[in-house]
Amino acid sequence: MIPKHLVWSVGVIDEIQMLADPQRGGAWTSAVLGLAAKELHLCGEDTVVDLVRELCRMTGDELIVNRYERLTPLEVAPYSLEGKLKNVDRGDCVVTFSRNDIFMTKRKIEKETGLRCAVVYGRLPPEVRSEQAQLFNDEESGYDVIVASDSVGMGLNLKIKRVVFLKTDKWNGKQDVPLSVPLIKQIAGRAGRFGLIKSKDKDKDTDADASSNKTHPGSMNAAQVASIAASQPPGLVTALRDDSLERVKEALSTSNPKVEHARVDIANPNTQALAQALPPGTGITDLLETMRLLARLPPHTKLGLPNLEQRAPMPSKLHVFNFDSDRPDDVSFDIDLLTRSLPISERLVLAQAPVRWRDPTARKAGLAFIKAYEAKMHVNIRKELRGFGLVEALEDVQELKEKWRRQQKYTNKRKLPEDYRSSILDQDDLARLDSTTLSNLESLHSTLVLYMWLSFRLPLGFYQAPEAQMMKAEVERGIEWCLEMIREGKKKHVERVMESEEEKDRVEKIEYLSRDAVQKWRREGATPTAWSNLLDGARRAGEAV
């Protein structure tokens, strides 16, 4: 959320070409036009310059364009991997486009090459994606390869030597469609970026920071930067098979199409005014469709409502909500049915909530939130989520993690205290940590983000924001732990994970504890038992709100 009421000296907006995205572009356009900054830096593709110039002409702002070239070259490899994952090398980023393919590819690479793989994909929380990226970037972590979806193209700085496309098409919900030229270019461009190259030889560091005695590029002159860039190897792009490599070559030699329209979202006050002029009981779908038909937009802008440019056969089935993936046709009907008794302002908030509609479990949880709010005007987060397997998955993982805490002190089962022997982690426990557990944690995380989003807009009804934040941190640690443990059911590196677990608890949860409570814990000797009791008390207090 952009704090438009504050004045800033400088603002920076990255990936500015996203202002044309049909679903999310309204957020970028709102930031460009609404951020109160004396100087605003827009970073992104050159294809958006003409559009930004038109927006500046409309607002009366001055536009200064600076163009930059890559400091390290990007080259297409002469050969593919010949269909063999055993040819994956250290420093590679292997790109595929489904969660199942990512984990299958990870297992095959680890089996055929002995290289460990980090993973990055859209359903992972941003915090976990950053953690996986850090593992890949760290020369000492043991993670040599990263397997990722197209989400690797934004928001992460990765030491990628070579990008490998497993395929160059992507499932759009109905069929496989070719990747767009801009998307191929964006993903390929992650290879060999200045200062971010992972050496294939652990004893040879090619990081620009090391080459320049850890001098930041921003403090160098042009000659120094050019010298370091010349010493770095180029970024490489290839594909698993020859046909995909030809598609990559074609895309990299093709110019990106110009961005011609910025997306704008409908302002709620305008919609509320229109609602008063329509018959009582008009649904959200019909309301927004009427707004679309009546809206007078500035030049070079379009409404940011997905799939409204072509009218659907049944108005009640239109896709009208602001979301990050395609919604099924009947969602608008569900929302209208559940919110008819609410004021139009609240119905609009609920209609625009970021529910992951394509995730069946997250969809059920989101509708449960809406139903509880409509019926009781307040939503207890744990109560409403129980029964969908989400809270249960978190509790299950926490139970298994506690077993590891107990077990890590004893390497020999026969030396375990008598009361511990019945609760050690065994192969049956490891079997519980499957992809379903991980999927439920991912769904729970997106649902907690939804609750926090609603708490900003309907704070009296969604009143447990601190509890949601605490659970969100727990889920993120649980996902990280699952990713570590799922790897072929092996116990390798578990001690390293668990050694940092208690410290993470202290760092991430301490903000929810009062200063008096923390001081009391210290007076009692700062023991793990006292800390556990303190956290339990804080959690119970949160549930009792």
UniProtKB/TrEMBL annotation:
Bias kind Basic and acidic residues: ranges: 198-207
Tagged with keyword Transit peptide: no
Annotated GO biological process: mitochondrial RNA 3'-end processing
Entry's Gene Ontology molecular function annotations: ATP binding; helicase activity; hydrolase activity
Pfam families, per database record: DEXQc_Suv3, Helicase_C, SUV3_C
SUPFAM superfamilies registered for this protein in UniProt: P-loop containing nucleoside triphosphate hydrolases
Cellular component terms (Gene Ontology): mitochondrial degradosome
Domain of life: Eukaryota
Keyword annotations of the record: ATP-binding, Helicase, Hydrolase, Nucleotide-binding
SMART domains cross-referenced by the UniProt entry: HELICc
Gene3D superfamilies according to UniProt: 1.20.58.1080, P-loop containing nucleotide triphosphate hydrolases
Database matches in InterPro entries: DEXQc_SUV3, Helicase_C-like, P-loop_NTPase, RNA-DNA_Helicase, SUV3_C
Region (Disordered): 198-225
Bias (Polar residues): 215-224
The Helicase C-terminal domain, residue ranges: 80-244
Name recorded for this polypeptide: ATP-dependent RNA helicase SUV3L, mitochondrial
Organism: Rhizoctonia solani
